[in-house]
Amino acid sequence: MIEKNIFDAINQKKLKLDELRPLSEETVKSLRESVLLEWTYNSNAIEGNILTLLETKVVLEGITVGGKSLREHLEVVNHKEAILYLEDIIRNKEPFSEWQIKNIHHLVLKGINDKYAGNYRDQQVMISGAQHLPPAPFLLKEKMNEFIEWYSTKAQELHPVERAAMVHIIFVGIHPFVDVNGRTSRLLLNLELMKNGYPPIVIKNANRLEYYSALDKAHTTGENFDFVSLVVKETNDMLDRYISLCNNNF
Q1: Which of 94, 181, 189, 234 could connect to 168 by a Cys-Cys bridge, CB 3.0–4.6 Å?
Q2: pLDDT at 149
Q3: What does the domain layout of the chain look like in residue ranges?
């Protein structure tokens, strides 16, 4: 059970950020570019991409980096396209759906493994370093239907930040795809935050051990507090960053 006072600071900061809106065009552009870079770099680095932050920036600008693989380049370009798609979803106020999840996954994996891009896995997988074993392939359709049903019902009773964290936990526990489930889950987490007027957060590569431990604990014991707390911390930090930049522009 998550104590509701864990969200008190977030609620206050969210109100403060809302009071500062609409943000200036320059502020929005600056924040968007920096967060997109950090989000892309860290999400890929967690999964083993060896491009540095600066190299990721260069690739996002359309320049190739010598000595690095095509896959590493595609992971950066694809992640950016997936973020642009999230922005379209929010702009168009599209409801959360299985079709939407498959589209996000397709964007992340296209050109890397086209056979499985946007398609559920047809084989059993294991999560490296985790005790949790994802469901067998024949159960995926049922589990994803349950996920969408949960989102439409019980999830709506949760604080938006807790709901975003739970979307990540449940999705990555199902692990419906052969590859890039982690990147897809972090995109879904931020989609939920952004839908509700929160800035996207960055799960940092430097904190990946804490991140993985909290996820595995949630999957093996049903105790979600550690992971929700991690998301709360990152949300608080990002709200501070947005508010600070806005105040400095006055």
Answers
A1: 189
A2: 98
A3: 4-248
